[in-house]
Amino acid sequence: MKRIPHLLRSILHARSGLAALEFALILPFLTITGLYGTEMAWYMLVNMRVSQVAMQVADNASRIGDTSTLTSRKIYESDINDIMIGAKLDGGSQLNLLNNGRIIVSSLEVDASNNQYIHWQRCKGLKNVASSYGIAGDIKVGGMGPTGHKITALTGDAAIFVELVYDYQPLFSSRFISNTTITALASFNVRDSRDLTQIYQTNPVSTVSSCSTFSAT
Fold first, then answer.
1. Number of other CB atoms surrounding residue 25 within 10 Å
2. 125, 127, 131, 137: CA torsion to nearest 10
3. CA-CA distance, 210 to 97, in Å (whole number)?
4. What is the pLDDT of residue 60?
5. pLDDT tens by residue, 131-153
6. What is the signed CA dihedral for 14, 17, 21, 24, rounded to 10 degrees?
7. pTM of whole model > 0.90?
8. Which residues contact 107 (CB under 8 A, 6 or more apart)?
């Protein structure tokens, strides 16, 4: 019984486990902060990659067509399909781009009445979303794109306008960044003289990346 007061005094003045106790108390906060920081870094990386893919699709779509020095370049459905496949590969397995998003490619041109209009539009991806800037056949007064940043096509030429809409896939949990839709826009003028009358077919016939269908293949 005489040892009990001494034992209690020893426990009261003990400092050997203080650091471990402090670490145990702060560990949950450090873990949550670390996970949140990693999730934010991943979110910014995904934003950058989605923007890069959209820019690449617009750039490639502005260059496609058979090579000829005698006539304007013809573009084919197979050319557009190749661009979509390339975007899927560039997105990588982690993004799973076409399963979680949608690519919308529009050709903005000038009609016989000197109006800006969407001549054709092609889409790929499982996400059920339509273009925010119009569909094929729409007249686009002042051009195509968000207010203050519209693009226009020159007479006898075309401008390729790309929308990439992607559902962000969290690295750890949606509690850090709630389910977010990332949208990237990109546009390039067609590089060479292009046959603007239509998109041609190959033989055998290639699948049309119609905007009324939803596919990742």
1. 9
2. 60
3. 18
4. 95
5. 999 999 999 999 999 999 999 99
6. -170
7. no
8. 118, 119, 120, 121, 158, 159, 160, 161, 196
